[in-house]
Amino acid sequence: MKIEIKKFGEMLMSRPAGREAYLALSAYLTKGVDRQELLEIDFDGVKVMTPSWADEVITKLAQEFSNIKLLNAQNSTVQATLKTLREYSDLKI
C-alpha cells in the first residue's frame, strides 16, 4: 500500500492537523490492512513537514506497521523531521 503524504498538503505543520490526517488514514486507508504488508510512505510534493505533524502520523504508522519504506524523503525539512523523531520519539524507520 502506498500513502501519498502530499494529499494532506504541501505544508504539514501542526499537531492537530497531523492528528486529523492520522484519523483519516486509519479510518479510510489502513483500516483492515495486514500489519505485515509493505507500507510505502511517499513524501513527493511535501515542502515543509514539522516534527509535531509527523509524530502524529509517521510515528503512529511506524508503531502499527512493521514493514515501512520511505519514498522521496530527500527534502531537507523531511530529513530533519525524521532525524528528530528518531532521536526523541524512538522512530525505528
If strands are numbered along the chain, what order do they take across the biggest sheet?
A: 1-3-5
Classify the beta-strand content into a percent band.
15-25%
pLDDT averaged residue by residue: 96
Number of strands: 5
Structural class: alpha/beta
- Please give the radius of gyration in angstroms: 12 Å
Structural commentary:
The structure is a single chain. The protein has 93 residues and is an alpha/beta fold. The protein has one domain. The chain contains three helices and five strands; from the N terminus they run ββαββαβα. A three-stranded parallel β-sheet has the order 1-3-5, with no helix packed on it. The chain has a two-stranded parallel ribbon with strand order 2-4. The longest helix is centred in the N-terminal third of the chain and has 15 residues.
